[in-house]
Structure formats: structure tokens, C-alpha cells
Amino acid sequence: MRVDLGNALSTTPGVSEASLERLDEQVAAAHETIEAGRADAEHGYAALNLPDTADPDAIRAAVEPFDSPDAVVTVGIGGSALGAATLSAGLSEPDDPEAYYLDNVDPEHVTRLLDTLSLSDTVVNVVSRSGTTAETLANFLVVRDAMTDAGVDWTERTFVTTGESGNLRGLAEKHDLPSLSVPDGVPGRFSALSTVGLAVAAIQGHDLDALLAGARDEASRLSGSLFESPAYAYGAASYALANRGALTNAMMPYSEDLEYFAEWFAQLWAESLGKDGLGQTPARALGATDQHSQLQLYRAGPRDKLVTLVRPTERADRDIPETDLEGLSYLGGSSLGELLDAEFEATEASLAAVGVPNVRVEIDAVDERGLGELLYGMEAACVLYGELAGVSTFTQPAVEWGKRAARGLLGGGDFEEADAVSEKTRLVVE
Amino acid sequence: MRVDLGNALSTTPGVSEASLERLDEQVAAAHETIEAGRADAEHGYAALNLPDTADPDAIRAAVEPFDSPDAVVTVGIGGSALGAATLSAGLSEPDDPEAYYLDNVDPEHVTRLLDTLSLSDTVVNVVSRSGTTAETLANFLVVRDAMTDAGVDWTERTFVTTGESGNLRGLAEKHDLPSLSVPDGVPGRFSALSTVGLAVAAIQGHDLDALLAGARDEASRLSGSLFESPAYAYGAASYALANRGALTNAMMPYSEDLEYFAEWFAQLWAESLGKDGLGQTPARALGATDQHSQLQLYRAGPRDKLVTLVRPTERADRDIPETDLEGLSYLGGSSLGELLDAEFEATEASLAAVGVPNVRVEIDAVDERGLGELLYGMEAACVLYGELAGVSTFTQPAVEWGKRAARGLLGGGDFEEADAVSEKTRLVVE
């Protein structure tokens, strides 16, 4: 991963090189904290050890019973789905088993997916550390029932990824299901490079070793200076810009294969850093498409944004045929990849010309190695940002309130949060 | 469309009912401006007349030659794709012709799509008002070439939606292609209810009349008071909250079928209102999925957000099977729809409990009528917001700079913007 901060130096907001040099002392201190946390495999920091602690052989062995299914359906939500989805979106080829994600409880969507699948040729991957996540368990009960109705033995088509105890662990033991363990100390949003994120990649036949090697390479570049580590350069600059008013981080990859990466990043960034009144709101975008949508706002709207432009420097290209259409001859003889790169650089310059900060992030290619670098790099950037901001990066206290309210509303216990729902203030216009 | 502002009154930022009453005088004046613009079919305002001016018979007739294709590929970008994509995402059933959108110039993505399609059973819908949009024309040249290579007569499988003159109009006349006209005075991001948005819906067999009836119904509720018009209630409250610090608008539908609606809204809001240093950044979210991702930030992060929660009040439901799994008996006997609604209300209350403003928007169902109401309502809300803010709602000056730079980079002329690209400041960490 390469990070270019040049277009964030003399912008509004902006961070001067001198400011970054002063900040580098805090980066050095934060790096020591991070390294100590990694050495003790403390909660959260343990995720940064995954390139060494993940066991690709064990993951491959666990999914080995499922030889070339038509489809693999991951039933999980949040961090239990986004890492795997990012990898399958980035790496899938048309001949791979199709990867689906049931990460919502929309009944029409669930029914439509189940009606589409040949369940006897489908593998179901249930992911929940606790084994009690309401959305995931509800969907699993529905999918299991649909398999039974279709005459498919669900115990032959299901594997679970869960903690050492709980409902799903018990189920795996009772029915002898293949299973994987969610590693200790790894929060869901940091689990892409663990069993949670890698099992679907294994079923699809992607190269787990190259993924982990890319991550390991990025890890080896963590050091006590933001000027020596691309991950820390990104994390420190984002933090400095947020402090100076860039409360929105528009994540804009120039690659359809990285569209899901922006979703994954949005969870990582929002759930890790959005606390104590701090944090940077991730806005998911896609280049070049959003040049015809969001760019007007980024360039001419409030100066509360950092725009992060991500691209691979290599990709399979495709020529644009020659044409005699008026005014379009410049396109003929060029290629779609050249057009996309020109758009990327034009957007960068367009923002820089009016002083909107933007950062360039590049990987060599959207392949296993590149994704390993990118995901690990962004995780390390996030952890550094959290250290600098002094927030509790690895917790998510604000999501619990709503869970208790929803459970109370469904009669799953007596929760005072549920009472607040019925006391809602109304001002209805219809 | 029903709008409930109750949870935005006593929040931070928040707008009191008394403030809304004072603002209502400005709403009345803005409504007069809007009605005058509509009466004269002025640029932009003309879009609010589409429920009456769009001609569903003409649209159906234009696509009638393409009887039940396997797929329809729309080649267009920005407003030339998002409206149609929102309708097909919201309305498609498994047996409908599959709708694809080539709204990016990623060569790998284009190649993958072309390899997947049976081109002889595919209809290509090329959409560009000017006929010179670089991304669209490049993709069209590639698709046309691929059809020829596959032995398919592209002139039999292509229709165009374009202006009264230009490249695509000339092409349609030369090859006798079915064609539709982009109506005058309708900017791309306001064109969902015109030929631009409705042609794919017609091919898929959706009910254009019901779509327009829903929009007409919403139009009939525009009045000189925000307390009488759901669209104006949403637009005025968003404006008032933005003025008070809610510079981000998190658009969070609780329906997979509305995921694309959030993309469409993001363009409408960003490109119309993001100018003169003003505007509200749309952040696309999806309920309940993003409760496990963005909710932590919305509840505990910076107080610069309005969260808009959208749902249909009716949908096909699916029961959750009974279970003896520990602690989950409360789910059995409930349904996915009930769980989703409980999550919706819990999120609302969770934000309200800590004073984060949120607005509830409801339609009866994600069907033609409901989408007609919702799209028209949000367009009218946007136009009102623009009037109140005093911005030029219907222009997009900031996107032009980048287009000239990209064109210059590809050798399509001498543009000073292209020079700025090579003068980029660098601070690379690798």
C-alpha cells in the first residue's frame, strides 16, 4: 500500500508537513502502545497479529467437505459478513462458487434469495461469535427450515464460525458440523483476516497464503514514524484532518471490485472511532461513477471533508474501439483503463485546485496480495487514529441500547429501553 | 409518503416546532417560486411536472420491439442510470428481464459483464442527453463492438435516450434505432420519472401509470405550508437542521429493495445542494444491517448528523420457525418483518434517547405507487431546500473542471486543467 498525502498539505482543512512532523512524536508513542498490545495479544490489538496467527490450513481443512458448491451463503451481520464480502467482491471470478450474504432480516429479500438457490448445492456459513445475534439466528432458523422443506439435510450443508461456547458451538457439537473458532481478542470489524473473513475465500479457492503475506508485508512496515509506514501515514493524516474540521471521510475507490471495500472501511472507521463525540463519518463513494454524483458536493460544499481516492495501479484493460462519432475520436485508440486513470487524476486535481484535501492510496492490483495489504493497512491506520484520539477503539457500546429495545419489543424480556419506543414524540405530516 | 419530524424537535442539533412555524413563511414564499417555475416549465422546475408531462404510452411503444429480452443493459452514468436503477432494484421480480447498469468505466467489470450476457438476448439502452458523455460513449463503443464480434446486429438490439440533436440522435436516425427524448428542462438527477428512468421499468413490465399516479398524488400535496406537505416537511426540516449543524444526512432505508434509492437520493442531494460552501453530505446506510456498523457513530459521534429512517409499512413477511436454542425462544413465532420493524423503532428510540435528530419517512409499500410518491417527494423536498438555502439547485458547475482535465489527459484537446494534474504535490509514504 502506498499513501500520498501531498494533496492534503495546503488545503482547507489541511495539515502542514511541519504539523505532521510534530504529530510524529505522538505516533511514536502510539506505536509503542500498539506494539505492547500486540505482544500481549490484548483485546483488539490481537487483530494486528492475524497475519501470523491465522491458520490457513485449518480453514481450508474445515471447508474441505464442501467441494465446489454452486453457492455459499454467509449468514452473519456487521463484521461477521463485511470482511468475507469484501474479499469475495474483490476476488471472485465467474466460475467460482457464488457468494451471498444474508446480513439483513428483510423478509422479501430472504425469500427471494432462497427461491433462487439450489439448496442442495449450497453451503451455509453461519457466523456469530456469541451465537445469539438476533438477525443472524433468525435468518439461520429460516434457512435451516427452508432446507428441510426442500428435502436437504441441513447438517450436511452447514458449517459454523463461532466462539468456544454458546448456541452455535453446541449445535456444531450435537450435529457434528464442520466448525471454525472466532479467535480471541479480535473484534468483528477487525476479523477479515481471520476464520471469519477467510472461510468463504477458501471455498472460492482464493489464495489465503498470499492474502496473509500481503498483510504481513504491511505489518512489517509499521514503525514509530508516520513517514515510514503507509498505514500510519493514512491514520495520522486522517486524524489530523478530522481535528481540523474534516469530519467526513469520503472513501472513493476507482474499481468496481473495491466497492465493497468501502462498505467494510465504513464499518471499521465508524464503529471504532465514532465515540465520545469524536470520529469521522465515512461516506461511501465509487469512482468514476460518483464524479457524476458526489463530486459537486465534495468540491463546492462545506469544507468538512477528506476525500480518499484508492486505486490499483495494474488491471486487465480493454481497448475503446476507434470511432468517427463527432468529438469522440480522442476516445478511440485509448482504453477504458486509461480513461479511468485520467478520471482519477482529474478528480484529484479538481479537488486540489480548490483546496479540498484528498489522499491517494494505491495497491498494485486488486488481488489477494493487494487486498491483504489494503485491509491490514486500514486496520492499522484505524488503530493508530484511535490511539491518537484517545478513544476506546475496540468497543461498540452504543449499539447495545437498540438491541435491548428490539428484544424487549419482541417479547424477549423486560427491557426499559423498549418502553422508550412507545413514548416517541410525533409530528406527522401526511 | 408520510413524514414524522417528532424525533428532530428536541435534539442536538434540533429544530423546535416554533422555529418550524417561523420557517413556514419562507416555505410559503418558496412554494410560490416553485409553482411559478412549474407554470413556466423553467429549467429544473419542469421536473416537478413530470407526473403530468411524461407519456407512458410513448415509452411503452418505444421499447415494444424488444419483447421479453433476457437482460437490459443501461449504458449511462449519474442521473442517466440512477433513476432507472432505483426503480428496477425496487420493483424487479425474479422472472423479469435482468437489469444491468454500465455506469463506470472499470475495464474488468465491463469485460465480466459482457462475458456473462447472452448478447443476442440482451437489449442495450444508451442514455446521454448530450451524446458526448465520455464514460457512456466509451462503454457504448465497447458494447457495440462486442455485439458485432458475437455476430449480433447491434442495430436490432439498441435503443437510445438522448437530446434532440447530437451523436446519439444522429446514430438513431442513421440506423433507425428506437429512441426516446430526454425532456427539456429536466436535469439528469431529476429524470427518474421521465423517459430516462422509465424505459427500463417498461421493459421489465412495471406499471408506469401507477408510478406516475403516486408521484401525482405527492405533487397534489405540495402547498404553502410545510405542515401540510410531507415533501416540504422533509425538505424544510433538513434545511433547518443543516443550518443548525447537521451537515450529514444519513439516509437509512429499512428495505433491501430501497438500497439503491439511497444511492439515488445521494446524487439528488449532493449535486443539487452542494454548492457555495453549503449542502448536506448524504451518507448511504441500510437498516437493519448498518445498526451493526454505522449506528455506533450516529449515536455517539459528532453531533453533525440527521438520520433519515425510511420504511414501507407493508411487505410480504416470513415467519421465524420455533426454536429451543437457548435464549432465542422469543424469536420463534415472530417473523422477520416484525424483527425488522422492532429494529427500526429501536434505532429511532436509541438515537432519540441521546438527542440525535432523526426523521421517519414511510410509504405503504415498495411498489410502483410507493416509489412514485417517494421519488417525487424527495425531489420536491430537494427543490424546496435549494430555494430556502438560496443555491442554484439545478446546475452542477463543479463537475466540469474534472471532465476537461480528463479529456485533456487523453489527448482530446488542449485544456489548462490537464496541466494542473502534472503539477501535483507529492508526499509519498510506501
In words, what does this structure look like?
Chains A, B: This is Probable glucose-6-phosphate isomerase. Chains A, B: It is an enzyme of class 5 (isomerase). Chains A, B: It holds the Pfam family PGI. Chains A, B: One of its GO terms (molecular function) is carbohydrate derivative binding. Chains A, B: Belongs to the GPI family. The structure is a homodimer of 430-residue chains. By secondary structure, the first copy, chain A, is an alpha/beta fold. The first copy, chain A, folds into 2 domains: 2-36 and 212-389, Rossmann fold (3-Layer(aba) Sandwich), CATH 3.40.50.10490; 55-182, 3-Layer(aba) Sandwich (Rossmann fold). Chain A has 17 helices and 11 strands. Chain A has helices at residues 17-39, 50-53, 56-63, 79-91, 107-116, 134-149, 154-157, 167-175, 195-203, 208-220, 230-243, 259-273, 295-300, 336-353, 368-389, 400-409, 416-422; strands at 2-4, 71-75, 98-102, 122-128, 158-162, 179-181, 248-253, 281-284, 305-312, 358-363, 428-429. In chain A, the strands form 2 sheets. Chain A has a 5-stranded mixed β-sheet, with helices on both faces. In chain A, strand 9, helix 14 (336-353) and strand 10 (358-363) form a beta-alpha-beta unit. In chain A, helix 1 (17-39) packs across helix 15 (368-389) and helix 3 packs across helix 9. Chain A is globular. In chain A, 64% of the residues are buried. Chains A and B meet through strand 1, helix 5, helix 6, helix 8 and helix 12 of A and strand 1, helix 5, helix 6, helix 8 and helix 12 of B. Strand 11 (428-429) of chain A pairs antiparallel with strand 1 (2-4) of chain B.
